[in-house]
């Protein structure tokens, strides 16, 4: 990778030692591995009790366990931990970070458009599975009460909804106060998984033979197409792979890998094999092999612990949705939204009300509509398999362009991973009518919003640039006319780092005066998560008391304009907070059907523009020092 600055969290994760490294590893357990760590609640059960079940027999149990074992080895261990985690964007991971690595490298418009569209669609699909994950996780945990006694059956859905409502209501408060318990709870959870697994394996140690891949091959040969479709359920054990890549920036590569190789992978495999051993001796336990592993006295404590683990996993998914949305906003793919910081110490802890309530409504609707975790499992996985395919394709290009791999070496790594991804995708695509349409529908809708907003902004910027007055002509005219200069400073925000902002022309037209110090300010979002200290601020002196200032922010940074402008004094621009006024142009978009975009998309862009968060709050401007000047713009 290049020598650019890394975020503190990633640098700390890479170089941490001793107690600090242990703290990072403990924290990563609660954030990174919540999704994949709660999969034992339902994954193996769905292979024998789901949409395309196979009969419970020794041959099938060993075959399915072999598939689970090698799926975790190939997809999670080799693909994500050994390969994809290396492809970080200055310490940050996730599909948008991977996509942004490509942008500076490709100048061919068509090729870049295809790659950007793939990356955007992959990111959009994560919202659909992000809605399903809290629903299926919490629902499967609460269903453990039914194992204790059928009397709880009518209360499973209401209890699940109550827990989810509490979870989403709590988001505004953040996790600064209770986040410290996430890691210990998940450590207890993984320890419990391993213990239950050992208990199960002790009943039938022969189950360990399933590590031999021949059992997987024989399973396919014996079951044929039906055996292939079981891959749709087997894939549930690996659904957290994409999530752990997205969380790379929070902890760094080293703590994530230590957790996986030392704790998580071993605990998961022991538990899956323990469930398999139980099915070898008690086939009737297939209705819920996870809970039936536990002795009767431990059932209620296990339900409580499982519920806590699924709530923590859901919390991580929700926080990931907030982070993904902020990245998309900073990169210009979504309109500005309200972002609330829930911790003064941790800049990454944010809360987005619009995203939160949308996720809550969708998650509750899923629980009410599907009612059972086994029904939700039919809808789960199809979006993640699609995103994994896109990640593999983008990683193939990044490995060549950023790591310097030859095309042959990149293909040698990519083809096996892509073959596995496509196999899982094929097994999951048949789930579309059984509920898989939901994450695809959500992903398609988000993709439409992203591409419409991006395209609309390009059209709007071209329109404003076309009507912009060159700065040289404006200053030349200003020097010839007796226009009064009033004390203080004025900051005029502009989309483009060229020409005269419309807000300045409107202000001059109506007030017939210009401030002594005038700053033409443009805020740019970089394709990197963080800026270097020396590239945040650029100042150009234009003459006549005018300055062109460009502020740059990474897509994981907050665009705090007043704080960044405070350094402008070092470069000769005197901006006293109590004497500085910010002038913003507030454009009202009018759809005309004349732009290079369908009329209905123009109307959608106009709607998004009207509902975007104000620039005042988004850029941290003092409200009592802001003047907005409106204008209608036809596109």
Report on this structure.
This protein has 635 residues and is of the alpha/beta class. It has two domains: 8-456, Up-down Bundle (Amino acid/polyamine transporter I), CATH 1.20.1740; 467-634, no CATH class. The protein has 28 helices and eight strands. The strands form two sheets. Strands 5-6-4-3-7-8 form a six-stranded mixed beta sheet. A two-stranded antiparallel ribbon has the order 1-2. A hairpin with a 2-residue loop joins strand 5 (537-543) and strand 6. Helix 21 runs antiparallel to helix 22 and helix 23 packs across helix 27. The longest helix is centred in the last third of the chain and has 35 residues, at 432-466. The radius of gyration is 27 Å and the shape is elongated. The relative contact order is 0.13. Residues 1-13 have low confidence and may be disordered.
Give the topology, please.
Blueprint: H1 8-15, H2 18-31, H3 34-37, H4 43-49, H5 58-83, H6 95-102, H7 109-142, H8 144-148, H9 156-169, H10 179-203, H11 214-223, H12 225-229, H13 231-234, H14 241-246, H15 248-251, H16 253-281, H17 289-292, H18 299-330, E1 340-341, E2 350-351, H19 353-370, H20 373-377, H21 382-401, H22 407-429, H23 432-466, H24 471-480, E3 485-493, H25 502-511, E4 514-525, E5 537-543, E6 546-553, H26 561-565, E7 580-590, H27 599-611, H28 615-618, E8 626-634
Parallel strand pairs: 3-4, 3-7, 4-6, 7-8
Antiparallel strand pairs: 1-2, 5-6
Please state the CA-atom Rg, rounded to the nearest Å: 27 Å
Instruction: Provide the CATH architecture of the largest domain.
Output: Up-down Bundle
Separation of the first and last Cα atoms: 41 Å
Q: What is the residue-averaged pLDDT?
A: 85
Report the structural category.
alpha/beta
Number of strands: 8
Strand content: 5-15%
Domain count: the total is 2
- State the CATH topology of the largest domain: Amino acid/polyamine transporter I
List the total number of helices.
Answer: 28
Most strands sheet: 6 strands, mixed
The helical percent reads 55-70%
